[in-house]
Amino acid sequence: MLELLVAAALLSLLLAVAAPSLRGIIEQGRGDQAIDSLRSAVELTRAMAISNGGIATLCRSRDGRTCGGNWEEGMIVFIDSDGDRVPDDANALVRVFRGSAAGGTIRWRSFGNRQFLQMTAMGHTRNQNGNFTWCPASGEARHARQLIVNVAGRMREALDSDGDGIREGSNGRPLACD
Predict the structure, then answer these.
(1) Mode of pairing for the β-strands spanning 93-98 and 74-79
(2) 51 or 103: whose pLDDT is higher?
(3) How big is the CA angle at 156 (ends 155 and 158), to the nearest 5 degrees?
(4) How far is C-alpha 172 from the geometric centre of its chain's CA atoms?
(5) Residue 89: its pLDDT value, please?
(6) How many whole angstroms separate alpha carbon 40 and alpha carbon 141?
(7) Residue 62 neighbours by CB under 8 Å, 6+ apart
(8) 155-157 and 105-110 beta bridge pairing
(9) For the domain 29-157, what is the CATH superfamily, name and number?
(10) Which helix (H) or strand (E) element contains residue 170?
């Protein structure tokens, strides 16, 4: 009986030590999932603009049909021939990205604070360089991720260049989750 109690105590101690790092691994995986989904959405928007020879729009969408809501609730990609950020018919809608299973929040910061991203037939943004920042539900900046989109439509992820455990955003400062 004593051996069983000692084994249970050791197991409890090991779990108490491992739980915080396990939570960090889970949040890192969620961040990877959110950034991968955003990268796919931007790549699809760019490909649709190029292949259709016109404007394609990526916007946040709560209902999967119109622009509006929060980025983490979902996104739509559609052919936007007149550039008005409104899908003109059912054929214009290319793909619906459902809300992120990763949890947390997603912000899009861009030139002019436009809450959509449009790509041209050349594969460039319509003067909308910016970044998507994912913050975990815990709000811990060390797990935050950022996808940076330049005006040429190219993407890169924010890196931790100074080794402090927090990635630096497109502005060169550590990512923050408020």
Answers:
(1) antiparallel
(2) 51
(3) 140
(4) 19
(5) 80
(6) 23
(7) 68, 69, 70, 73, 74
(8) unpaired
(9) minor pseudopilin epsh domain (3.55.40.10)
(10) none
Q: Structure pTM?
A: 0.85
Task: Name residue, tokens 């550590």.
Answer: 174
- For 18-41, give one letter per residue: b (16+ CB within 10 A) or e: eeeeeeeeebeebbebbbebbeeb
Half-sphere exposure of 118 (CA within 13 A, CB side): 21
Ranges 11-20, 32-41, 113-122: which has the least confidence? 11-20
Mean pLDDT of 20-42: 86
Contact 67, 61 (CB under 8 A): yes
- 135-170: per-residue pLDDT in tens? 999 899 999 999 999 999 999 999 999 999 999 999
Using a 10 angstrom Cβ sphere, with 0-12 exposed, 13-18 middle and 19 or more buried, the burial of residue 168 is middle
